[in-house]
Structures are given as structure tokens and as C-alpha cells.
Design brief:
This protein is α/β, with parallel strands linked by helices. Helices cover about 35% and strands about 20% of the residues. A seven-stranded parallel β-sheet has the order 3-2-1-4-5-6-7, with helices on both faces. GO terms for molecular function: oxidoreductase activity.
């Protein structure tokens, strides 16, 4: 059986491209876009060819985010603070940042967002409790709280503006799990890539949490 890649988008935006997963997805998302626009506040490697655009952006800067989103067809939002920090640090990149992303998507007609959420939105449940995507959120940190807010933002922008989102509650996504705890939440790079493909191309997702 031949496996074919779906028709590429004209232009995909990947935020957080200088981060650990961003660097992995920079290569893995190329088949899904004629042009892959890469963004981060941190330094990134220069564009390798005409199929990449590299654009520095502070997610806390509303005008910069609006410029970043202009002309893209879908957004892979992996940007922002990715670990626990002070509330002030989380506020700009994760809370203001997610609002700026969705408001820019609305303004520029982007109808699909993939949001890198986190298992920390349910981090205060005890080990062994059986959960699903509909279990009440119990964030365990300012970081987890910001991701919970991002999921609410995704629901709001779908209900009000029809922007569809798949929120992926990422746990551990590394080449290999290093311990039992990581194994319980491990998402391989291959599985993440397949999940992103389905999140980008599956119709009528509304706001789906996985």
C-alpha cells in the first residue's frame, strides 16, 4: 500500500521553532507546506531554501503577531514558555500570546490552529485515576494554568468565529523515554508527526482535545 502525503498547504506557520520540538517539526512539517513560516523570539537557524521563511516574533507583541500570521493557511502553535516560570513570565508569552494568535487568525481568515497544550492542565489528579478529554481540568502550575486558558480560548474562538482547533496535551515527547514516568506520557516524534497531519487535515474538528 502506498502512503501519500495530503496536498500541502500554501503556507503553514510554526511558532516556537527554536524550541526542542520546534526544531524537530521544522523538518517534519516541510512536506505539508509549500512554504513553512518559522517563528520564535529566540535565535533560529536561517532559512535553508525558498520553502522556509524565518521571522523573529515576540508573542506578547500584538502587532508583531498580526504581521506574523498574515498570509498563512494554518497555525502550529508551539510557541511560548514551555516550563514553569513566574506568573509574570507566563503572562506575556502564553496568556497574552495565545490571545494574539487567535485574534490574528480571526483577522486574517485562518480557520485551523493546532495548539500545543500540556498534560499539566490535569496535573493535580492522582496517579492511577482514569481520565478522558472531558475530565475537569486541574492545572498544577502557572504553566498548566496558561495551557488551560489556551484551551478555553480555542473553544471560544470556535464557538464565536468558527476557527477550529486541535489541542494536543503533550506529556513527554523526546527520542526515547528515560524513565517510567516519561513512558506513561511519551509521544514519539513519529506519532506526533502523524497526529499533526490528522489534526491539520481532518474536517469538522470544532475544538478537539487529544
Amino acid at each position: 500500500m502506498t502512503i501519500t502525503t495530503p496536498t500541502p498547504f500554501n503556507r503553514l506557520l510554526l511558532t516556537g521553532a527554536a524550541g526542542g520540538l520546534g526544531k524537530v517539526l521544522r523538518e517534519r512539517m516541510r512536506p505539508y507546506a509549500q512554504v513553512l513560516r518559522l517563528s520564535d523570539i529566540a535565535e533560529m537557524a536561517p532559512a535553508t531554501d525558498a520553502r522556509e521563511e524565518v521571522q523573529t516574533c515576540d508573542l506578547a507583541d500584538k502587532h508583531a503577531v498580526h504581521q506574523l500570521v498574515e498570509g498563512v493557511d494554518a497555525i502550529l502553535h508551539f510557541g511560548g514558555v514551555s516550563v514553569e516560570r513566574s506568573f509574570e513570565e507566563v503572562l506575556g508569552a502564553n496568556i497574552s500570546g495565545i490571545f494574539h494568535i487567535y485574534e490574528a487568525a480571526r483577522r486574517h481568515g485562518v480557520k485551523r490552529v493546532i495548539f500545543a497544550s500540556s498534560n499539566h492542565v490535569i496535573g493535580f489528579y492522582k496517579q492511577g485515576e482514569q481520565l478522558d478529554a472531558h475530565s475537569p481540568r486541574r492545572p498544577d502550575s502557572y504553566y498548566g494554568l496558561s495551557k488551560s486558558y489556551g484551551e478555553d480560548m480555542a473553544s471560544f474562538y470556535f464557538d464565536r468565529y468558527g476557527i477550529e482547533t486541535v489541542s494536543i496535551r503533550i506529556g513527554s515527547s523526546f527520542p526515547q523515554p528515560q524513565n517510567r514516568r516519561m513512558m506513561h506520557t511519551w509521544l514519539s516524534f513519529d506519532d506526533l508527526t502523524q497526529l499533526l497531519e490528522r489534526a491539520l487535515y481532518t474536517p469538522n474538528v470544532g475544538h478537539t482535545v487529544v
